[in-house]
Amino acid sequence: EETISVKLFSEKIGKPVSEILKKLLLLGMMSTINSQIDFDTATLVAGEFGIELEQKIEKTAEDILIEEAPDTEEQLLKRPPIVTIMGHVDHGKTSLLDKIRQSKVTEGEAGGITQHIGAYQVELNGEKITFIDTPGHEAFTAMRARGAQVTDIAIIVVAADDGIMPQTVEAINHAKSADVPIIVAVNKIDRPNANVQKIMQELTEHDLLPEEWGGQTIVVPVSAKTGEGIEKLLEMILLVAEVQELKANPDRLAKGTIVEAQLDKGRGPVATVLVETGTLRTGDTIIAGTAYGRVRAMVNDLGKTVNEAFPSQPVEVIGFSEVPAAGDILHAAPADKLSKQVAEERKDKQKAEMLKKMSKVSLDDLFNQI
Ligand code: GDP
Ligand code: MG
Q1: Which ligand is nearest to the CA of 87?
Q2: Three-class SS state of 265
Q3: Which of 165, 231, 288, 306 is 20 to 30 A removed from 335 (C-alpha atoms)?
């Protein structure tokens, strides 16, 4: 903590040293002209003279680097919903993600090569939907624990020939505690022993009353095998998203979340970023956790090189100094040198405090203002 000498303080506030020492004594402090006093003490003493000290916040490098100016209403534009699929093991999460992707992604892209980058987008009637391709509530919880909000809608998958299982309940609870709307996909309806009514009954026991029965929960019977119900599921996602009025400002430096990251032999650190707001561009200075750098190249979920990534878009980013961690928040930054400095500062701090903004009071600056 910064301090100031009684002598300097006296000069700054234009009061005699002897007067200040008296006030300090009244406060229980034996001091001399050379004693150092802290900000709180200085405030008290100044108050005794009827002088109000103004606290001047000195911005840290982190504050300067990551300017989060509020968006105006006009800047906010509609963005695609981000969807996570959760549910019990073997109920068909991976199959469903694959089927949705197959049925939609390759449609307009004859022979288009799809690649797994941790998230992908599909389009229905000109509207995009983003799916996180790393199912399981563990990833969901891990990211949420790090402050990353990367889900707008949770799809809970329940196998129609099985029922609500422990991990289904966990998934429901996670979605509820994150305050994320739930759509239930009752999967495997192609199976002879599928029983959608039984699943709906079980859902009511977990506070999810199906719309069909007068409740609020959208339940869509699907088959990841035949593709039945997939279109309906996507329509329901768009319907829920419409109500949510999801918006972001594409006209600002990007902020996003690291969905997954690894070290690639040829390309170095590679991370899938889900852009939350702003537009990420090739050449942008970036920082995520203790990793920093410049966007050297970006590849979309179709394996295509792109120069821009918009809100809710997943994109693979090359150019980090090291591999960031899943759940790290990415910021594009205006200043090159600062990003390295900030990344190094973060490294020096405890991981828990990494993103906590700090402010520092400089007594010198403070007194300059009086
Ligand atoms: P996950 O553990 O939730 O990711 O489940 P998977 O997608 O790996 O599916 C588990 C098993 O169920 C696999 O053998 C799939 O082929 C099968 N499966 C998934 N969805 C369906 C479906 O709609 N119908 C049928 N018949 N089998 C399915
Ligand atoms: Mg799976």
Answers
A1: 1
A2: coil
A3: 306
Say if CB 328 and CB 292 are below 8 A apart. Answer: no
Report the alpha-carbon distance of residue 180 to residue 290 in Å, rounded.
Answer: 29
Total-model pTM: 0.77
Rounded Cα–Cα distance for residues 172 and 154 (Å): 9
Which H or E run contains 121? strand 119-124
Out of 90, 99, 138, 161, mutate this one to test ligand 1's pocket (max ligand atoms within 8 Å of CB): namely: 90
Residue environment code for 97-107, b if the CB has 16+ CB neighbours within 10 A, otherwise e: bebbbeebbee
What CA–CA distance (Å, rounded) separates 82 from 233? 14
pLDDT digits (tens, 9 = 90+) for 90-120: 999 999 999 998 876 544 444 445 567 889 9
Residue pair 273/317 in contact by the 8 Å Cβ criterion: yes
CA 339 to chain centre: 19
Q: Give buried/exposed letters for 110-123 (b at 16+ CB in 10 A, else e).
A: eeeeeeebbbbbbe
Does ligand 1 lie within 6 Å of residue 188's CB atom? Answer: yes
Encoded tokens for 108 = 């307009």
The answer to whether the CB of 120 falls within 8 A of the CB of 208 is no
Burial of 108 (0-12, 13-18, 19+ CB in 10 A): exposed
